[in-house]
Design brief:
- With 157 residues, this protein is of the alpha+beta class.
- It folds into two domains: 81 residues; 59 residues, Beta Barrel (OB fold (Dihydrolipoamide Acetyltransferase, E2P)), CATH 2.40.50.
- It is built from four helices and five strands, in the order H-H-H-H-E-E-E-E-E.
- A hairpin with a 2-residue loop joins strand 4 and strand 5.
- The radius of gyration is 29 Å and the shape is elongated.
- The relative contact order is 0.09.
């Protein structure tokens, strides 16, 4: 195997690692990592220990420098701003606070509740669950509890 082929393996591996950012899934990045490793191993096997060690050190340095450049400059670029989130999750709530007002309200089962389904409460579709019983569609229901995003209903007697 020639030195040109070995260098092409390492460079194509780094190129695939770069494209992993734009093509998520891990396959392209894993293939790139394997190509870099294969290039270094081929450097040791076909060109000697000096060549292999040089490729190993250069690959490590290029990887670290590329990572540092990515962390430093990409977030400030227009492309980086489009790729990264602009807000963190501090303002995000896992529960819908509007559902807390549903306690005690009445509505109609929009679908058959087996035991989960949808109901119309105040003209709004809401995902609901019963305490285990089945409720036929178009049956009047009442919200007996709201536990986070879980709206528990029962039939009106």
């Amino acid at each position: 195997m020639t030195s040109t082929t070995i260098i092409a393996l390492v460079l194509s591996g780094f190129l695939l690692l770069f494209f992993e950012v734009f093509l998520p899934g891990g396959v392209v990045g894993a293939l790139g990592g394997l190509l870099v490793i294969a290039g270094v191993v081929c450097g040791f096997a076909f060109q000697g220990p000096t060549w292999g060690a040089t490729l190993l050190v250069v690959s490590g340095v290029l990887g670290l420098v590329g990572f540092w450049l990515w962390i430093t400059f990409i977030p400030k670029s227009p492309l980086g701003r489009r790729l990264m989130l602009s807000h963190d999750a501090h303002d995000w709530k896992s529960t819908d606070v509007a559902q807390q007002d549903l306690a005690g309200k009445e509505g109609v089962a929009h679908s058959t509740l087996r035991p989960a389904g949808t109901a119309l409460i105040d003209g709004v579709r809401v995902d609901v669950i019963t305490r285990g019983e089945m409720v036929a569609a178009h049956t009047r229901i009442k919200v007996i509890a709201v536990e986070g995003n879980r709206v528990v209903v029962t039939t009106l007697a």
